[in-house]
Design a protein that fits this description.
158 residues, mainly alpha, Helix Hairpins, 5 helices, 80% helix
Amino acid sequence: MKGRKGKYTCRKIQARIQTEIFRRNTFTFANLEFQNMSLKKRAASFNFAIQGMKELFKSQPNARIHAAAAVMVVAAGFYFQISHTEWILVTLCIIMVFSLEAVNTAIEFLTDLVSPGFHPLAGKAKDVAAAAVLMAAIGAVAIAGIVFIPRIFAWFSD
């Protein structure tokens, strides 16, 4: 058999497989399945996201602390009449902290699922995810300080 050229060589089989894979994965508008993008499915996906937010605030004390801080910052923003640019910065900080808190929570849930017992890598994954939230919170506090400290000093000096 060695050296004999058969009908199907390895290169021919490999080329045929690659051609078939390319043919099946080629993007065309005809391949899009618009019937799968129904309004019901879009509404269901929003419902799942809302359920996720409920779970975040129900199960995570830090998310509730962030929510209380966000309410105080928004109230201070109205009281001190911060500018549009400052509102954008404050809003982005609030969204960033909540988003990272949600990602941290998802990582914690998944880590607990795949590694119910103690594992050093599972602990590292949770620590790094928590560090991301901490960095965002520190950045948000810094921006809040830049926005509000001059106004607070002016308020006390009046």
